[in-house]
Design goal:
Oligomer: single chain
Structural class: alpha+beta
Pfam family, one: Cupin_2
Radius of gyration: 28 Å
InterPro entries: Cro/C1-type_HTH, Cupin_2, Lambda_DNA-bd_dom_sf, RmlC-like_jellyroll, RmlC_Cupin_sf, TransReg_Diox_bact_type
Organism: Halomonas koreensis
Largest sheet: 6 strands, antiparallel
Helix content: 25-40%
Protein name: XRE family transcriptional regulator
Order of helices and strands: HHHHHHEEEEEEEEE
Strand content: 25-35%
Keywords: DNA-binding
């Protein structure tokens, strides 16, 4: 029986499970666990009683761990067998996307109470929706109903002052530089209270994007 078959047999005996369809990458998984805990090979050697050279060979798939070695890894690292046998997590790759919006070049969406300018409109499947808003409303009565949309919202006042009305709280006065984070499915509305129309920056995150 080959070393690979020895390993598979030992792991099946230990787990009582049928053979995995996907080949085990135990060495890669061991290294993932070690790095996640910021352990050196020396640290793992002290915890498990396995030589550093043996651990290095296991991680680099130069040897297959014996059943005894697997038991020492489980005991010394304080993990259970499924944790050790689970497939390594795929490494996330940075897509390197970016989307520049020059001043005034966003998509304009005027309403009776707001003038929205959607930003970063070229990117699809964004987790965040940024937009700048000129608050034209001057009285809460200008809104026929609460503004509400799914998700969460971060808002910062860029210019002027606003009154933030919300469904479950007393009105809140915000000035330039103030910011607030709130659940946007809660009814809300913004009103300018400064001499000039206030300008706010908002970033929304839909629930399904979190």
């Amino acid at each position: 029986m080959s070393a690979t078959n020895d390993q598979e047999a030992a792991l099946r005996i230990a787990s009582g499970r049928k053979p995995f369809v996907e080949p085990l990458r135990l060495g890669e998984r061991l290294k993932e666990i070690r790095l996640a805990n910021q352990w050196t090979l020396g640290d793992v050697s002290e915890r498990t009683g396995l030589a550093r050279s043996t651990l290095s060979k296991i991680e680099n798939d130069q040897i297959s761990p014996t059943f005894s070695a697997v038991q020492k890894l489980i005991s010394g690292l304080d993990i259970d067998l499924p944790q050790l046998l689970s497939q390594p997590r795929p490494q996330s790759r940075t897509m390197g996307r970016r989307d520049l919006t020059r001043r005034g070049d966003g998509q304009q969406h005027p309403t009776p109470t707001y003038e929205h300018e959607l930003l970063s409109c070229e990117l699809a499947q964004k987790r965040m929706i940024p937009f700048k808003t000129i608050v034209r409303a001057r009285r809460f009565e200008e809104f026929s109903e609460w503004v509400r949309h799914d998700g969460e919202e971060f808002l910062m006042v860029l210019e002027g002052e606003i009154q933030l009305f919300s469904e479950f709280y007393e009105p809140l006065h915000l000035v330039k530089g103030d910011s607030i984070y709130f659940d946007s499915d809660m009814g809300h509305a913004l009103v300018s209270v400064s001499e000039e129309d206030a300008v706010v920056l908002s970033v929304c995150t839909p629930r399904d994007a979190q």
